[in-house]
Design goal:
Chain A: InterPro entries: NCU-G1. Chain A has six helices and 22 strands. In chain A, about 40% of the residues are buried.
Chain lengths: ~400, ~525
């Protein structure tokens, strides 16, 4: 028989495994992470009381990625690719109101920023799970500004990742009193991998993972069936004629995010054409409880990309950063809504958690994992072999029986 | 396989005048003649009704889940108890039920007892709801489980007794579709019924009253078991049929001597059904997320498996009755199911196609697989055998359903589909092994219908011949008249020979003693 001995089988699997490891390691580079709180802000008194900017330097073999996480007014994330020498400089007296108060010591090759500009609460009377962008009546949609007060819950840094957790609440004396909590969790990683928590998004070493939790919101009076949506505003130092391209790609594989087969990419034209622009990527799933599983999940939907509003960017990192002039460079916005029909609306659990990645390059593609391929080949291949062999056996036996018959008849 | 025989026993002649009288008394019309199709058809209707009540009541809590949880103030995990207390005990009690039916009660009394247990259980559940005592409801579900699952075993045994060698496959198919009808009717009727009752009562009393009304269906089933018992007794007397012609008695240790083919049939049963029921339970989200269906559409796609099987299983049964070759039928149906799962897992083709195929495969298997047990197990052990099969199936389903939940949450639906495909491959390989095993042991399972008839005739005449030879062989000193009335297996003759030459037999080999020891229980 041509069946190899058992040790040779395991050896061949081992070789396969090692190849896969090598392949996955060589396909992306690793970066060294260094995080700084409020960089360069030693004397200014306001940096002592609160954290407004966290700067993460990620040094790779050829270049450096900078992630600037800013929580002054609306949460903003900036990704910039520079040479090794460049460093972040913030002029704290002017920040964030003067433009160019945040810059790099040498001009970045590329920069891309995302701003969580606004939250919408909408009254989904027909239980469609979708936001109607045309309906602006105040009985249907309620625009909520992002929280004013941001408190740092955690800043964790080690060799493999940097994690920042911020909780945002509304001031009690503000004109539109809002009760509830917005939590934003930002992570960046040394190397390419799936994130440890569901939805296990695939991130490269050129990306920041952003998790938005909308917790215990008191829904507006008169809104029976409240759902929430968020507006993301994106800016990049590309020509404003380029635009942002969305792609919703469905695959057979839901191994990493059980029950979710779709992957959504938003790419700037530079990312789409040559792979050196900014992108956003997410799975259209939101979790409605801390215990993340299929039962506690609902869907998300995104809407067509629109032009971003300069007004929304005022006083944020996007306006303060010298890397792009918002009047001439790419400035777009997209809405993402959370919920699906039949899920009991936001009030069922009073929690929505949604995760996306933003980064530089081409958004990573998911492939069948080695585990799936192994399981598939063992579970389906083995029985197929057995059936073919037993078919051969039956055929052979038939033939020999016929010979016996011939002998007997003679 | 060697001890079923349909030889008319000599003492049956005494009742001949009796039967003629009865036939005359009935006007000799065909409805009353147990040999006629109409008599059997009436039996079939009763056999189907017999399971209706328990299938109807089984899913009562699911049909009224929201009302249940609100009125009785239950948590989801408490609600699940209503099902787990039904299904876990039945994993063991099916065997016990089947065995008791074979050994102590006989099929008629056994069926009536099980049906009565169902009525009692369901009534206790309703009572528990009216009194708002959750433990009482759980206890009721437990009793219901004991009765309901054993009743399913009894239903199978009845079918074999009445229809073996005739329309057995069709009957199995029909029974299955009727069970489906029972649970479907439950889902569509209970909600309006609750609404109607809630105009008079509210809260837990309302739930209780609704359950009481629902329990009427089990009384209907009890009535049909009683009529069926009467019909069966009459048919037995008139046709001089005896359930247990060989005088052999089943023992619980016989289970270990069941032929290998039986165990392989049970394995196919488990490996196949785990790829159907847990899939349907988890399918809704899969259809919504992967194929973009609305929740209502996803429910339709999900239920199409049952809808199709309800229509097509009797039809497939008729086909199998006509052509025989049960193993080929099983093989094809497993292949079809593999195709349907592969379609769902590895393509974006509309899931209607996949689930419709699955419904076809599922109904074809049900009509082909269950009757095979009756061909490899002698009639006096049949209740036990179906009990074992049901138990194995329940156990497998209970465990694998838990496992499937874990697989989906950690590996996703693709992994789950691969798992189902692997289970089906196990079933497929086992079918091939059954074919190989069976063809080297006479090959009854894969005979065509015509070959099977010839085979049965030959076997009966061979047994007749054996008996005559024994009588003619002289040396009658130790043969009692009782012995002559009974056919003898090889085993029996060998033992007689051994004891004559003075060999010491182990005590359990002594058939006379065995007969005596169990007589008291009959």
């Amino acid at each position: 028989m041509a069946v190899p001995p058992p040790d040779r089988i395991s050896a061949s699997y081992l070789i396969l495994f090692v190849f896969a490891l090598l392949f996955s390691a060589s396909s992306s580079q690793e970066r060294q992470l260094t995080a700084t709180k409020n960089p360069g802000c030693n004397e200014n008194p306001r940096c002592n009381s609160s954290v407004e900017v966290v700067h993460v330097r990620a040094d790779g073999p050829n270049d450096t990625m900078h992630y600037v996480w800013c929580f002054h007014s609306e949460p903003t994330v900036l990704v910039a690719l520079t040479s090794h020498e460049a460093n972040l400089s913030v002029s704290w007296q002017d920040f964030p109101n003067a433009s160019s108060s945040v810059s790099f010591t040498s001009q970045p090759f590329y920069s891309f920023g995302v701003l969580m500009s606004q939250i919408y609460e909408f009254n989904d009377i027909n239980d469609t799970g979708l936001l109607d962008p045309a309906n602006n009546s105040n009985t249907y949609v309620n625009k909520i500004e992002m929280p004013e007060v941001w408190e740092m819950k955690m800043l964790q840094q080690n060799r493999d990742f940097v994690r920042l957790v911020m909780d945002g609440t509304w001031k009690k004396n503000s004109t539109s009193i809002k009760n509830g909590l917005i939590r934003v969790e930002l992570e960046t990683y040394r190397s390419t991998d799936h994130s440890p928590n569901l939805p296990h998004l695939l991130h490269s070493s050129n990306a920041t993972l952003i998790e938005l939790s909308i917790v215990n919101m008191v829904t507006s009076s008169g809104f029976e069936n409240s759902r929430y949506a968020i507006e993301l505003t994106m800016a990049a130092n590309e020509s404003s004629s380029g635009g942002i391209y969305s792609r919703s790609f469905k695959s057979l594989d839901d191994e990493h995010t059980p029950g979710v087969f779709t992957l959504v990419d938003l790419q700037t034209s530079a990312s789409k054409q040559s792979g050196n622009g900014g992108y956003l990527q997410w799975r259209p799933v939101a979790y409605v409880a801390d215990e993340r599983d299929i039962i506690n999940s609902t869907e998300t939907a995104f809407y067509s990309v629109k032009n971003g509003s300069l007004l929304q960017c005022e006083g944020t990192l996007l306006a303060a950063f010298s890397g792009f002039d918002l009047n001439t460079s790419l400035l777009k916005a997209v809405n993402v809504s959370f919920g699906a029909s039949d899920d009991g609306f936001y009030s069922a659990t009073n929690k929505t958690i949604w995760t996306f990645t933003m980064g530089y390059g081409h958004p990573p593609d998911e492939n069948f994992s080695l585990l799936i391929i192994l399981v598939m080949s063992v579970c389906l291949g083995l029985p197929a072999v057995i059936i073919v062999l037993s078919g051969l056996y039956v055929a052979l036996r038939r033939i020999t029986y016929r010979k016996d018959d011939l002998l007997l008849s003679e | 396989m060697d001890d079923i025989s349909r030889v008319d026993s000599v003492n049956a002649t005494t009742s001949e005048d009796d039967s003629e009288q009865e036939q005359q008394g009935c006007g000799g019309s065909s409805c009353c003649n147990p040999k006629s199709c109409i008599y059997r058809f009436c039996g079939l209707v009763l056999m189907c009704l017999l399971g209706f009540g328990s299938y109807f009541c089984y899913d009562n809590p699911a049909a009224l889940q929201d009302n249940f949880m609100k009125d009785l103030n239950l948590s989801t995990s408490q609600f699940v108890y209503l099902y787990s207390w039904y299904s876990w005990p039945s994993v063991v009690l099916c065997i016990v039920g089947g065995f008791l039916m074979d050994r102590v009660f006989g099929i008629r009394l056994g069926t009536c007892i099980f049906a009565l247990l169902v009525v009692v259980g369901v009534t206790i559940v309703a009572l528990g709801a009216i009194l708002n005592k959750f433990w009482l409801m759980v206890a009721g579900r437990f009793i219901f489980g004991i009765g309901g699952e054993s009743l399913a075993v009894a239903q199978n045994t009845y079918a074999v007794l009445w229809f073996k060698g005739k329309e057995l496959n069709m009957v199995f198919g029909l029974q299955m579709s009727f069970a489906r009808v029972g649970s479907t009717v439950n889902f569509s009727v209970m909600e309006p019924l609750y609404k109607w009752v809630s105009t008079y009562y509210d809260g837990f009393t309302c739930t209780g009253v609704v359950l009481f009304i629902a329990s009427a269906t089990t009384v209907l089933s009890l009535l049909s078991t009683i009529i069926l018992a009467w019909m069966d007794r009459r048919a037995e007397r008139l046709l001089k049929r005896r359930d247990n012609q060989s005088g052999e008695v089943v023992r619980i240790t016989d289970i270990k001597d069941f032929p290998a083919s039986f165990w392989m049939i049970a394995l196919v049963c488990v490996a196949y059904y785990v790829a159907i029921f847990p899939f349907i339970a988890l399918g809704k989200v899969f259809f919504i997320r992967k194929f973009g269906l609305s929740p209502a559409e996803a429910n339709t796609v999900n239920s199409i498996v049952y809808t199709i099987s309800a229509v097509s299983s009797p039809l497939f049964g008729i086909l199998v009755d006509k052509f025989g070759r049960n193993i080929v039928c099983c093989f094809v149906s497993i292949l079809v199911t593999i195709g349907s799962h592969a379609l769902l897992a590895f393509s974006f083709v509309n899931p209607f196609v996949g689930t419709s195929l699955m419904g076809l495969g599922y109904s074809m298997l049900a009509s082909g697989l269950w009757p095979m047990t009756a061909m490899v197990i002698p009639e006096h052990q049949l209740g036990t055998a179906y009990g074992v099969m049901q138990s194995v199936q329940n156990l497998g389903l209970a465990l694998i359903t838990l496992l499937c939940g874990i697989i989906v949450d950690n590996g996703g639906y693709l992994m789950l589909e691969i798992f189902f495909l692997a289970c089906l491959c196990v079933a497929l390989v086992t079918t091939v092994v059954i074919y190989l095993y069976d063809s080297s042991h006479g090959g009854i399972l894969n005979m065509s219908a015509a070959e099977r008839e010839v085979y049965e005739k030959n076997r009966i005449s061979a047994e007749d011949l054996e008996r005559e030879k024994l009588v003619a062989a002289g040396s009658m000193s130790d043969i009692t008249p009782q012995d002559l009335l009974q056919p003898h297996s090889d085993f029996h003759i060998r033992n007689r020979y051994l004891s004559r030459i003075g060999a010491n037999l182990p005590s359990h080999y002594n058939e006379n003693q065995k007969g005596l020891a169990y007589r008291a229980l009959r």
